[in-house]
């Protein structure tokens, strides 16, 4: 009897943990700065702040070596400029894997290979699927099941995205998105999506409510048929789910591969307080809450953009998305623990 009670309690605790701890938050380690700390120090900063997931835009050997035995899981990008060759040349795909992942397989927790960044629509979009297929074939050959293959898109794929239920992929994105989603459905991996309520808000601060963009609204702000939205991020995620459904895909998940708010660069729409509020609330949403109004059961992992302010990006807000000052290595505003 005691045993059964113990098992029941254990199962209940497990169910509660699954329901609550949606997913740990990750951070994008963007590296377009000439004043960034050395990679081993950056890995230390992730660990000291309890951040267990990192997204990298390219396979820098110094960064990958610094990640050895760090217990940080890594989403590793394949650079846009490498895709054309990799789309037809499996030696190039093998070479990339053998150089960057194979030697570190036992010491670094590679979670995803992310093929390309924000390429739909565009001239390189048609290379995405063949490169993803080539990586998947390599992983299948080597019987590696722990690494997923995906790509990362932005809201540029939409023809319409408001209200969420009216969302559709744009004519110039629909065909390639349908093929990519077919692949992701087959391999059962999520689509990476970059979502910035900040840019939507900044484009129309008169009509879009700040509290809706920052997860601080007290109740529903946008009612879409039976679905009520208290925050814009959920509406953007559901715009993807609706658009996918309209091309016949209802079983592919999403990962919010980038989201954030700049701490400067655009007058009173950007300051450390607003950035802190957004990033804290985004992290809270990812780590404590499953589902969206449309997909209540979906687990939606996410990564904040970004670790550092990057001084080699275009001036203005683009240089000000960082959580940390790269020179002092201090947080730009209080936001830890996330
Ligand atoms: C590695 O990370 C996982 C999940 O974040 C954690 O449960 C585990 O305790 C960590 N292991 C070590 C050796 O730090
Ligand atoms: C920015 O300033 C304008 C003009 O004073 C004001 O109407 C608006 O509410 C301010 N926005 C924020 C986010 O503080």
Automatic annotation (TrEMBL):
GO molecular function, one term: glucan endo-1,3-beta-D-glucosidase activity
Superkingdom in the source lineage: Eukaryota
Keyword S-adenosyl-L-methionine: no
Catalytically driven reaction(s): Hydrolysis of (1->3)-beta-D-glucosidic linkages in (1->3)-beta-D-glucans
Pfam name, any one: Glyco_hydro_17
Segment forming the signal sequence: 1-21
Gene3D superfamilies attached to this UniProt entry: Glycosidases
Coiled-coil blocks: none
EC number: 3.2.1.39
Record keyword Transmembrane present: no
Keywords assigned by UniProt, alphabetized: Glycosidase, Hydrolase, Signal
GO process terms (BP): carbohydrate metabolic process
Family that this chain belongs to: Belongs to the glycosyl hydrolase 17 family.
Record's protein name: glucan endo-1,3-beta-D-glucosidase
Source species of the chain: Acacia crassicarpa
């Amino acid at each position: 009897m005691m045993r059964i009670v113990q098992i029941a309690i254990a199962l209940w605790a497990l169910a509660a943990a699954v329901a609550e701890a949606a997913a740990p938050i990750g951070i994008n380690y963007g590296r377009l700065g000439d004043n960034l700390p050395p990679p081993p120090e950056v890995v230390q900063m992730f660990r000291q702040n309890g951040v267990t997931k990192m997204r990298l835009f390219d396979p820098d050997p110094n960064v990958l070596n610094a990640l050895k035995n760090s217990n940080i899981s890594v989403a590793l990008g394949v650079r846009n400029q490498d895709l054309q060759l990799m789309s037809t040349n499996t030696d190039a795909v093998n070479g990339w894997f053998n150089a960057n992942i194979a030697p570190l397989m036992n010491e670094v927790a590679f979670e995803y290979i992310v093929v390309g960044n924000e390429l739909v629509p565009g001239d390189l979009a048609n290379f995405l699927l063949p490169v993803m297929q080539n990586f998947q074939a390599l992983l299948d050959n080597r019987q590696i099941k722990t690494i997923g293959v995906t790509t990362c898109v932005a809201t540029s794929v939409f023809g319409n995205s408001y209200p969420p239920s009216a969302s559709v992929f744009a004519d110039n994105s629909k065909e390639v998105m349908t093929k990519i989603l077919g692949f992701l459905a087959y391999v059962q991996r999520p689509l990476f999506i970059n979502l910035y309520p900040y840019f939507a808000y900044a484009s129309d601060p008169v009509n879009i409510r700040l509290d809706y963009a920052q997860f601080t609204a007290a109740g529903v702000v946008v009612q879409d048929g039976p679905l009520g939205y208290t925050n814009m991020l959920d509406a953007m995620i559901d715009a993807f789910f609706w658009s996918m459904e309209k091309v016949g895909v209802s079983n592919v998940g999403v990962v919010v591969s980038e989201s954030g708010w700049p701490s400067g660069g655009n007058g009173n729409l950007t300051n450390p307080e607003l950035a802190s509020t957004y990033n804290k609330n985004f992290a809270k949403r990812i780590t404590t809450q499953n589902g969206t109004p449309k997909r209540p059961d979906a687990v939606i992992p996410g990564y904040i953009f970004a670790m550092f302010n990057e001084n080699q990006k275009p001036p203005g807000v683009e240089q000000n998305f960082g959580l940390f000052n790269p020179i002092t290595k201090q947080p730009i505003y209080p936001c830890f623990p996330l």
